[in-house]
Design the sequence.
């Protein structure tokens, strides 16, 4: 019998949690400042651990940016060990940018986290397009899209050399000879490339995973090649035009790229972003969905600056929200894949308001009772071929999390579609288990 199980991960991207369109979202309780001491994140991680999720991916942007809504947040590094300590098996994947670390510092940090989490750490690699981030770190502007990937390639090459610099058996801790580390087994990395220079050995021994898990979410042509080269898990959003056929095309393309460079396509798990909306009845779920996703003028006013930002400065406030939006081409250096998905919604029929609405709409229309949503997930995975879903919640509330972990997941477990319990101790082993 073939294993039809798929993986679940959680995309933690809606901080400050419970805040939606300028208001405390329904069911956010009276604790919308909780996220600042990490307690909300810890509760969330415990729920996901109990439900058997592979990992939680903590999104990040490093700079204050009023336009894009990236205003208040915590550095993932501060909360990752807290979340790891509160859980047993859940993988904790943090977003760190290649633009604002040196490979040595990042390699050391991740390796240390892998130890304190007992092998459950991942790094979501981003290169950062935001101008504000460059300014905040003392620069002038971010390098262009493809050049950022070129820099990131070298960055990953250096971190990998550092992580691999300790041979097995390097830690001897021999009380008779007094030798703790066998220096013969620790290689000195001497790297002098176009962007980075480092000489020395990492002073953190290999963690339980050997190397931390690498996650990546670029979907442009360059981004896909980068992911195929380095990632253990790839996160994809196909936006409002999501369908199992589109998902399959992208997954097949990435698997083709993996095979081309000699990597086993099954060794990389490709997860698709979805936003399920559950209800006691299908009608109730649709009511919630419609209430949540209708784009009012106020909403649109909040969203347009974000679109302009993603497009690298194209002014979206010039368009009539209710006129058919004519397909346009915009070349930019920002989030090409994500923004491309948005532009692809201009089908000669949709208005800008409808495009905004559909771009936020939960992929695959995962709207309904747990049974209905489980049916759609099962069907999609059969067509796509794997490997699972990255669930996001908007707004991010304890209610929404519980609906997934205590409503949807048990239904998926009953059907044998997701794990009932973890088989291994480390994130990578669990991710590769099926
Ligand atoms: C699910 C998902 C999560 C992402 N998380 C982050 C993030 O936390 N920080 C960030 O700067 N970019 C994030 N991105 C953006 C990607 O890392 C990448 O920059 C973007 O998809 C554009 O890459 P591309 O131009 O190769 O398509 C995310 C993208 C997706 C689809």
Sequence:
């Amino acid at each position: 019998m073939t294993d039809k199980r798929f993986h679940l991960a959680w995309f933690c991207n809606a901080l400050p949690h419970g805040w939606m369109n300028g208001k405390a979202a329904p069911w956010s309780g009276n604790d919308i400042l909780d996220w600042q001491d990490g307690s909300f994140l810890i509760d969330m991680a415990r729920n996901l651990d109990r439900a058997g999720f592979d990992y939680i991916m903590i999104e990040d942007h490093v700079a204050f940016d009023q336009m894009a809504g990236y205003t208040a947040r915590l550095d993932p590094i501060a909360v990752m060990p807290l979340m790891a300590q509160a859980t047993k098996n859940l993988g904790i994947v943090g977003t760190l940018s290649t633009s604002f670390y040196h490979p040595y510092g990042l390699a050391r940090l991740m390796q240390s986290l892998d130890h304190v989490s007992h092998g459950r750490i991942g790094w979501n690699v981003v290169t950062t397009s935001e101008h504000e981030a460059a300014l905040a770190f003392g620069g002038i502007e971010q390098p262009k899209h493809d050049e950022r990937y070129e820099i990131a390639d070298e960055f990953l090459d250096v971190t990998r050399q550092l992580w691999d610099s300790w041979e097995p058996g390097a830690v001897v801790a021999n009380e008779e000879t007094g030798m703790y580390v066998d220096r013969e087994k620790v290689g000195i990395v001497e790297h002098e490339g176009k962007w980075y220079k480092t000489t020395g050995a990492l002073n953190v021994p290999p963690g339980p995973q050997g190397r931390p898990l690498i996650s990546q979410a670029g979907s442009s042509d360059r981004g896909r090649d980068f992911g195929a080269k380095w990632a253990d898990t790839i996160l994809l959003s196909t936006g409002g035009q999501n369908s199992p056929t589109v998902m399959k095309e992208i997954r097949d393309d990435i698997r083709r790229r993996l095979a081309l460079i000699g990597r086993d396509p099954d060794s990389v798990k490709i997860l698709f972003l979805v936003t399920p909306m559950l209800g006691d009845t299908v009608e109730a779920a649709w009511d919630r969905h419609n209430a949540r996703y209708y784009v009012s003028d106020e909403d649109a006013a909040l969203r347009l600056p974000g679109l302009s930002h993603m497009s690298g400065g194209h002014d979206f406030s010039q368009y009539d929200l209710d006129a058919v939006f004519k397909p346009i081409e915009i070349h930019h250096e920002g989030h090409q894949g994500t923004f491309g998905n948005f532009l692809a919604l201009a089908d000669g029929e949709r208005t800008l308001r409808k495009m905004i609405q559909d771009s936020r709409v939960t992929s695959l229309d995962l709207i309904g009772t747990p049974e209905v949503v489980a049916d759609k997930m099962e069907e999609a995975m059969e067509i796509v071929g794997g490997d699972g879903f990255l669930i996001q919640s908007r707004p991010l509330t304890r209610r929404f999390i519980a609906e997934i972990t205590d409503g949807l997941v048990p239904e998926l477990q009953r059907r044998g579609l997701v794990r009932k319990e973890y088989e291994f101790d480390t994130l990578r082993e669990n991710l590769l288990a099926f």
Notes: The two ends are 13 Å apart (CA to CA). Residues 7-161+206-276+363-432 form a domain with the TIM Barrel fold (CATH 3.20.20.30). The chain is about 40% helix and 15% strand. The chain has a mean pLDDT of 92.
